[in-house]
Amino acid sequence: MSPRPKKMRRCEGSFCGRAFKPTGTPLNELTPIALHRDELEALRLCDVEGLTQEEAGLRMGVSRGTVQRIITGARKKTATALTEGQALVFIDSES
Questions:
Q1: Residues 53, 71 contacting (CB under 8 angstroms)
Q2: 48 CA to centre of own chain
Q3: Cβ contacts of residue 12 below 8 Å, gap of 6+?
């Protein structure tokens, strides 16, 4: 039995460059943490726009549970990058 195909996720926001990193250290000297477009979109919708996970799921075309899973991972990646001085590298694909 093969896994269920991944549902297409609608993302309205855009990246503010290709990475977010600490100042003064070249990107190639930092540990990269991949932040996918759907993870940034979930952060934007829930933490910036203040939508509930249910509302964010409707906007993204996925379930509330999927938004919860996406945002949990995105918050962990973001917190790790900020506290450990690593780089968030924005990935356009969802793979």
A1: yes
A2: 13
A3: 41, 59
Q: What is the pTM of this model?
A: 0.81
Give dist(CA 39, CA 70) in Å, integer.
6
Residue-range domain boundaries for the chain: 29-91
CATH class for the domain made up of 29-91: mainly alpha
DSSP output for 60-85: HTS-HHHHHHHHHHHHHHHHHHHHHT
Q: Which tokens is 87 given?
A: 């780089």
**What is the chain's percent helix, strand, coil content, to nearest 5?**
45, 15, 40
Backbone angles phi, psi at 71, to 5 degrees: -70, -35
For residue 82, which of 36, 25, 20 has the smallest C-alpha distance? Answer: 20
pLDDT above 90 for 4: no
